[in-house]
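# nightly structure sweep
# worker-07 picked up a monomer target from the shared queue
# config: single-sequence mode, recycle default, output format = structure tokens
# input follows
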Amino acid sequence: MKEFSILVVDDSYTDRYLLKRVIQKTDVDTEIFEAGNGQEALDFFSDYKGAKKTHGEKFPPVIIFLDINMPVLDGFGFLEEFAELRKTRPEYEFSVLMLYSSSDNENDKEKALSYNFVSDFILKGSTGPKELRKKIKKVIETKFS
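# output follows
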């Protein structure tokens, strides 16, 4: 399988840590990048050439786990900006987002899933390693087959 990476965007260090632990328990060999809010994530994507040089084939991330409620730039703000970025940078069309939020609000879920590059809405604490592995493998198989 081709090398790939995952980006976890969440303002909670604890939530990022817990999600990384769950991802690591899936036995999927990947590098995990982190961002503390939507703006940090956009900054990570802004220097494509530099990031590609630093991270090689593991950039850009294939999967982005995104929280909704964050300071500076929240998840929905990131989705808007990332949608625009994808229009000008086709190399980012490869990335798939999975919302990873504590919000169980149906309107949030509908709004998130209205973006064609958002594949899933996962409620924090509701997905174990087995189910997460299935979700990750499904994305990877789709992207690399």
